[in-house]
C-alpha cells in the first residue's frame, strides 16, 4: 500500500432473502373508513332539517328570510337569487314553479339525488371507477378541476342570461 492511500473496504454481501414488510393498513385509511358513515349521517340529518325549515317557512313572504345582498347592493340577480323559492317549490312538489324561480336549484337537487346512491352502489359492489386502483376505466374520468371550471362557466352564463331582457325566463 502506498503512503497517503487508504485501504478500500468491501461492503458486506446482502442476504438472499429480505424479511417481508409488515402488512399494516395506513392509519389514515382506517380512520377515514370509520368517519365516512358518521359524516353521511350528520349531513343527512342537517339536510333534512334544512328541508323541513324550508318547507315550513315560505320565502315569498317578506321578512321570513333576509334579502339577497348582491341584489340589494347592485340590483343584479346572482346565481342564487330565487334559490330559496325554488327549494320551497321543490318541497311542495311544484317543479314548474321551482324552474321559474331558479333553474339551477332543481338541477343540483337532481344531481345530488342521482349521484349519492350511485356512489354508494359503486362503493358497495366495487364497480369500476376512479377510486378503484385495480380497475382501468374505459375512458378517463373528468378531473375535478375540469368539472369545477365547467360548473363555474355554466353559472356565469346563467347569471348573464337571467340579467338580460332576452333571458328573463330564468329570473325570479
UniProtKB/TrEMBL annotation:
Residues 1-35 are annotated as: Disordered. Residues 12-25 have a biased composition (Pro residues). Keywords: Membrane, Transmembrane, Transmembrane helix. InterPro entries: DUF2752 (IPR021215). Pfam families: DUF2752. Coiled coil: none annotated. The chain crosses the membrane at residues 38-57, 103-121, 146-164. This is DUF2752 domain-containing protein.
Amino acid at each position: 500500500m502506498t503512503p497517503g492511500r487508504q485501504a478500500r473496504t468491501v461492503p458486506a454481501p446482502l442476504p438472499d432473502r429480505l424479511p417481508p414488510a409488515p402488512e399494516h393498513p395506513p392509519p389514515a385509511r382506517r380512520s377515514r373508513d370509520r368517519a365516512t358513515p358518521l359524516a353521511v349521517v350528520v349531513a343527512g340529518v342537517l339536510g333534512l332539517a334544512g328541508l323541513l325549515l324550508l318547507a315550513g317557512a315560505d320565502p315569498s313572504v317578506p321578512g321570513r328570510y333576509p334579502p339577497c345582498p348582491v341584489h340589494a347592493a347592485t340590483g343584479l340577480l346572482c346565481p342564487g337569487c330565487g334559490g330559496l323559492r325554488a327549494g320551497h317549490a321543490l318541497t311542495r312538489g311544484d317543479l314548474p314553479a321551482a324552474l321559474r324561480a331558479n333553474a339551477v336549484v332543481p338541477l343540483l337537487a337532481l344531481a345530488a339525488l342521482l349521484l349519492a346512491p350511485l356512489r354508494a352502489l359503486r362503493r358497495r359492489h366495487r364497480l369500476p371507477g376512479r377510486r378503484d386502483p385495480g380497475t382501468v376505466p374505459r375512458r378517463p374520468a373528468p378531473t375535478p378541476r375540469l368539472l369545477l371550471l365547467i360548473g363555474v362557466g355554466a353559472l356565469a352564463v346563467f347569471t348573464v342570461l337571467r340579467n338580460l331582457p332576452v333571458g328573463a325566463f330564468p329570473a325570479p
